[in-house]
Design brief:
The protein is of the alpha/beta class. The chain has helices spanning 40-52, 107-114, 139-142, 187-199, 230-235, 240-246, 257-262, 275-281, 288-291, 300-311, 318-328, 336-352; strands spanning 12-16, 30-34, 55-58, 71-74, 98-100, 121-122, 150-154, 160-164, 169-171, 202-206, 225-227, 249-252, 267-271, 295-297. Strand 5, helix 2 (107-114) and strand 6 (121-122) form a beta-alpha-beta unit. The longest helix has 17 residues, at 336-352.
């Protein structure tokens, strides 16, 4: 938006968790407000902003429209693998005028999961995926002065949501993970994986899901098997997907990051040891083994085999993943932000002309 000079014509207001983090940002007609107002004056400004904005873009904090002409665009942050319906409020109402998705193949699935009409879909791709195409090696930003032949990023979805009360916590899978990790059930398993990683000069980086209750995961840091948190990325001043695009392979499970990583054409491993429990307790929006193609892992031995395949540069499922990518994406490129911007501006002109 700034590159297009939109701030010369419109005020751009960003709602954030802590506006003080942006106190040194000084751009014409760009301001920041706390999403949760902290003072009566902030609350008054909050209401004024939402009640006068011509358009609102959001990814997961849905507020609804404040007047009929207002344009509400749901940017989202991923395409569905797991179903959200079992955990959704049955009376929820989504007033979005448009919602972003990856392509026409997912119109029906997305509409059902979001409870929106399929014709509201815009097949632009997700703006954050544009970062995956950045050619700079951001692994050197996160791990300066270290050299690894390969870096594998492990991004499991959450099983236990960190947002909880004394009487309720959302549990997506009650499968017993003794260490809080799929496939690795003992400290000896972790040590064995670390040994294989070290022998092949590979770094395995575990990034817990932002919604994961970290009390279920045992903290550790091994030479070649480490935990990285969102704050570690933020402190380096880069975007998560810039780092993700710089890695050599990824391990995930039922997370939408699977679809994002398809754009890199790199190897993907999938832990599925709790598949049956997850299917029963949360469910899937797609036929998992038909759409989600990768090296399936159910135990430590499977993970070791996958690590060795990455070390050797083998990717036996590359052609199958390419077909899935073509099914998922109408535009498998780095112009998603541009497409969203153009549709937004066309919609504003049409509605306010």
């Amino acid at each position: 938006m700034l590159k297009q000079g939109l701030n010369k014509e419109y005020k751009l207001i960003w709602f954030v968790d802590d506006k003080n983090k942006f106190k040194n940002v000084h751009i014409k007609n760009v301001s920041f407000q706390n999403f949760l107002p902290k003072t009566p004056l902030e609350k008054l400004k909050w209401y004024y902003t939402f009640c006068t904005a011509r358009a609102m873009l959001y990814d997961h904090r849905h507020l609804g429209k404040f007047f009929e002409k207002q344009i509400l665009v749901f940017l989202r942050h991923g395409t569905f693998i797991k179903s959200r319906l079992k955990h959704a409020n049955p009376t929820e109402e989504n007033q979005s005028d448009l919602f972003v998705n990856t392509g026409r193949s997912f119109d029906r699935i997305d509409a059902e999961q979001l409870r929106l009409a399929p014709e509201k879909a815009i097949h632009t791709g997700f703006p954050n995926d544009d970062y995956l195409f950045d050619t700079k090696d951001y692994t050197k930003v996160i791990f300066p002065n270290e050299h690894f032949d390969k870096i594998i990023l492990w991004m499991p979805t959450f099983r236990q949501n960190k947002q909880k009360t004394d009487s309720f916590q959302r549990i997506d899978s009650s499968f017993d993970f003794p260490l809080g990790l799929p496939c690795l059930y003992t400290k000896e398993d972790c040590m064995e994986v670390n040994r294989v990683l070290k022998e092949n000069n590979i770094l395995l980086v575990l990034m817990p899901h932002p919604a994961q209750d970290l009390s279920f995961i045992q903290e550790f840091q091994l030479d070649n098997f480490r935990i990285l948190y969102d704050k570690d990325i933020e402190e380096k001043g880069i975007q998560l997907y810039q780092f993700l695009g710089s890695t050599d392979a990824m391990i995930t499970d039922y997370s939408s990051v699977y679809y994002d990583y398809l754009l890199t054409d790199k190897s993907i491993g999938l832990t599925i040891d709790d598949y049956e429990v997850y299917a029963a307790e949360t469910g899937f929006a797609v036929d998992y083994f038909k759409i989600i193609i990768g090296e399936y892992m159910k135990c430590k031995e499977d993970m070791v085999r996958y690590i060795l395949s990455v070390a050797e540069g083998r990717d036996d499922l590359k052609e199958q993943r390419q077909k899935i990518k073509e099914f998922v994406y109408d535009y498998p490129d780095n112009h998603s932000t541009e497409r969203v911007y153009n549709i937004l501006m066309d919609t504003i002109k049409e509605r306010y002309s």
